[in-house]
Write a structure and sequence with these properties.
Elements (H helix, E strand, L loop, with lengths): L2 E3 L44 E2 L8 E8 L17 E10 L2 H7 L3 E8 L3 E3 L2 E3 L24 E5 L28 E5 L15 E6 L15 E5 L12 E6 L6
Antiparallel strand pairs: 1-2, 1-12, 3-4, 3-12, 4-5, 5-8, 6-7, 8-9, 9-10, 10-11
Length: 252
């Protein structure tokens, strides 16, 4: 585990930099996300903010966005997991997550590992909604776009302008759409200079180290948030979760 962040099930005391601060790992955090300052109870999965030494030490190619709070899909359905997780693999290996934060370079080449895809009329749908422990318990709020256009990685964003010219973990970007994050997913397009989708199908951008528009307060400034096209940051809030990484080279 590299770091963990409280969600709507536990957070309070916004802006106080405490163990349960809803804003702690938002896009304005540089002490931890930019420079790797160790913080909090990082040796367990207690429901509070914490940064582990592994953030600045562990090499990785794979990233997992995992709930550490009780999941909401706890039926007997074989496709339902109590602990939601969304994971992807990059074709490269970095020396640490901190290296990526300090590089300030958008990297959107992750290939989804989980949840498993589903083919619908010859179209691969990622079913991302099943991999995140959302505050809203409705899958209907988190469907599309779950197509091959969805990109996974670092410093992703969608279309728009209200978040432009705002730093993300100390990195400056002219274009950031409605919401840019440090780690997460967004809908891509065919413009390499301004990647960011413009689909009116719910999730356009979501991640941690995030902020919606000016991130002035409330859910706009939560550690994990995003943009649901046509509904602002509605339904983009999640339960307490953590970021895990691994090096695919260590698996063989």
């Amino acid at each position: 585990m590299t770091f963990k962040f409280v969600g709507t099930d536990r957070c309070s005391g916004n802006g106080n930099n405490g163990a349960r601060d809803c804003y702690y790992f938002g896009r304005r955090n540089t002490a931890n996300l930019k420079f790797g300052k160790v913080f909090g109870k990082h040796t367990d999965i207690s429901l509070e903010n914490a940064m582990s030494p592994s953030y600045s030490r562990q090499s990785f190619s794979d990233v997992m966005f995992r709930s550490i709070s009780s999941g909401w899909r706890s039926t007997q359905d074989s496709s339902a997991r109590k602990w939601q997780s969304m994971g992807w693999r990059h074709p490269w290996t970095a020396s640490s997550v901190m290296e990526i934060a300090q590089g300030c370079r958008p990297l959107h080449d992750g290939e989804l590992l989980m949840p498993e895809g589903q083919t619908v009329t010859n179209d691969i749908r990622h079913r991302i909604a099943q991999g995140i422990n959302w505050q809203s318990r409705s899958l209907h709020d988190h469907y599309a776009p779950e197509t091959p256009r969805t990109r996974f990685g670092f410093f992703g964003h969608d279309e728009g302008s209200c978040s432009n010219n705002n730093d993300v973990v100390g990195c400056q970007f002219e274009w950031s759409g409605h919401s840019r994050h440090f780690i997460g997913m967004h809908v891509g397009n065919n413009n390499p200079d301004r990647p960011g989708g413009q689909w009116s199908l719910r999730i356009n951008s979501f991640g941690v180290g995030a902020g919606y528009c000016g991130a002035g307060g409330g859910a706009d400034r939560y550690s994990a948030t995003g943009h649901w096209w046509g509904h602002g940051r509605s339904n983009m809030q999640i339960q307490t979760s953590a970021i895990f990484v691994r090096d695919k080279g260590d698996m063989f």
